Amino acid sequence: MTGPDGTARAEVPDEPPVRRPRSVYEVGTDPDVRFSLANERTALAWLRTGLGLVAGGIALTSFASFADLSVLLDVVSAVACVGGGCLAVYALVSWRRNERAMRLGQPLPPPSALPVVVVGIVAFAALVGAYAIWSGSTR
Amino acid sequence: MTGDPAAGGGHLPVGDHLPVGGDPPVGDHLPVDGDPATVQPADAGLPAERTALAWQRTALGVALGCAVLALAALRESDPGLALVGVLLGATTVTGAVLARHGRWPRPDRRPWGMLAPGAGAVVVLAVLGVVASLVRAVR
Question: Which residue of A has its CA nearest to B55?
Fold first, then answer.
């Protein structure tokens, strides 16, 4: 390529667009694309777990309304919705953490929310089960 | 579904990014149009398709959650909450369709540009669920 005066001009390559979030893509190097996609699917799986809790909570309060059940179930469903919202946020945090670790060649951090989810779901099941037994015995 | 692997289409550069040293897996490069000289990387394991399906399942889950919320709100004679649920569901479906056709978000904003709104939708749904539960509990 030549300039207006006929002298040679170095070609300036187009700058690639900056990928977001910068806190992830400005460190390290791109990992195998399959690993990035797997990380994305893992985040989506967490998101769907949270969504399941939210939908379960909404369904529970709807059912409680339909069957005219105790207010206790509304409290349980509100807690389930809060837990689901927290899991959605965790999905974002864990995606970012894992992607950074892969880009930096570091070991992946452990899924810190997993024990909490297990305990929470067991507690949720125990609460609903206790309510079922209690309401059955008082009839 | 062409070109961008993150959008769920195209072929991944599998042969260029082997996770561990060694030979490429069998079938990693397939001849195109019967010409052995023309090789194209195969999408081994179809991770892009699996990721696209995971996105679709997530969007479907959010839309169904919104539908459950809208029905619960209508049952409680709360048209405002039902309207918000319907709007959130419609926004989610619109986003899923746009993403499916590669019109949103920009390629340099993926996957964060989809993960963050997806998680945001679940958080909003969770807040609406808490509101629905508490409204019923107060009544």
Answer: A44
Distance CA A24, CA A3 (A): 39
Q: Min CA distance, A99 vs chain B (Å)? A: 11
Q: Are A131 and A70 in contact (CB under 8 A)?
A: yes
Q: Which residues of chain B have pLDDT under 70?
A: 1-43
CB pairs under 8 A between A and B: 156
From CA B74, how far away is CA B82, in angstroms rounded?
6
Give a three-class secondary structure readout of chain A. Answer: CECCCCCECCCCCCCCCCCCCHHHHCCCCCCCHHHHHHHHHHHHHHHHHHHHHHHHHHHHHHHHHHHCCCHHHHHHHHHHHHHHHHHHHHHHHHHHHHHHHHHCCCCCCCCCHHHHHHHHHHHHHHHHHHHHHHHHHCC
Per CB-CB distance under 8 Å, the chain A contacts of B14 are 34
Q: What is the pLDDT of residues B19-38, one digit of tens each?
A: 443 344 444 444 445 455 55
Inter-chain residue contact A33 with B18, CB threshold 8 Å = no
Alpha carbon distance A128, A125 (integer Å): 5
**Could you tell me which residues come within 8 angstroms of residue A10 by beta carbon, excluding any fewer than 6 positions away?**
none
- Tell me if the bond preceding A21 is cis, omega within 30° of 0: yes
ipTM summary value = 0.85
Please identify which residue in the block is written with the tokens 């060694």.
B22
Q: Is the peptide bond before A111 cis (omega within 30 degrees of 0)?
A: no
* Residue found under tokens 């207010």: A71
> 3-state class of B21 per DSSP?
coil
